[in-house]
Amino acid sequence: MLRGDYARAAELLEPQVANWQYADATAAFFLGLLYENGLGVPLDKSRACALFARGSEGPGPFTQSARELTSIHLDMSGPDPVLDCRILMNWGLRHGFAPARFNLASDHWVAIDISPRKREIVAIVGYRGREKESAFSYGPSMGAVYLPASFTSLPGKGEGAPARHFVEVSHWLPVGPSQWQLLWSLAEVGDGDIVEVANKTLTTVESQVPPFDVTLELRELIDLRLTDAGGIEIVIRNGPEPPEDVPTFAERKEMREETARRKAADEKVNWKRRRDPARSPSFAYGETDGCGDLFVYGLSPGRAEAIAIRAGRRALDLSVTARTFDLSVPDAEVEVLADVYEYPQREWYCSNPSVSDAPPSTWRAVGGTVTIQLAAPSPLQRSRGYQATIQLDNVEFVSPTGITVRSPGSIRLTAPAGHRGGVDEVDGSFALRAPDRKP
Predict the structure, then answer these.
(1) What percent of the chain lies above the pLDDT cut of 70?
(2) Sequence ranges of the domains in the chain
(3) Could you give the maximum distance between any two Cα atoms of the chain, in Å?
């Protein structure tokens, strides 16, 4: 700079601030002076402002000067330069983000842009003359370097179903002075709305500067593809994660309604109510769930009673044709228990595996029948291996003290269970792949 070789000075300073999160404060200050005066680089007040702001954050002999110059720029500049300065302050000089717009139909479009008010990446959906803005969870992050947003359309599920439309936003994020991770966000557009459906970390690279010039095809790392059933799934290539189904808008709505229903049911529970732990089971169950291979349970409305069915390897060798077990015949592979609690329980079997020590009174089935049938999981149960339907008929239970009681009628439970990849459907039958284990 003293010799007047400003182009060479800029060439030496640029790499010191390329990784914005770990930028050198003194280098940022001097590079800001070059952009402030157009010396060796194009005159750019917004970049100068951002560099001064970055130079004011680290230790160095020019921290105070950088802070004063930042204040001058923010006070004297107009709204647009100030906005540009603040975006560059947060993201870095070479964030690479570029607005994009994609047309779904003549009256339906989606745009990816920066919100002037929020200074964050937003998606704006235009549909039949109306616009809706939504923020992306990935962004902005200090030092992030964005790849161009992309758009993908795939056929809908079922004959005559409309196409499904997806927007992908990816960026490199510094996770160290010389390490970068590629983060990927997927959102689906439909019915005048956009909803994020997945966020993934795709790869990590070693580099002191952002991988601006790295030639990368996202489809070499991650893909969206149609399933044999007509759905859509996310596939991470060369990764340990299994394919992940992408629910439709209707399925996501159903999941939200189910979550709201369970929340409303919990709000009706009197969590302080005490009950007699020696009472007989009511055999009235509403909410159901499952886990493991195979474990299904049902909860009473008051959350102070549960029924649980465990079936081992022999039960998991079932085909799609239902199979019935006689509970009066001792069988280590099949077990039915009714747990009676003194107080309502907030944690249940799948979230609290040590249930055998928790219930004050456990009634064991010693008679009647249990019929178990497996089927493919619903699209909503993306992480489960299968859907289990269980029916208990004329079941006799015995308490720890020897009291017996018989269920007044049939008890039917349907719930997802198992783990994704735990069963294969071949010629209409299911075969166990995961080892048998108690929950």
Answers:
(1) 85
(2) 6-91, 100-246, 269-432
(3) 99
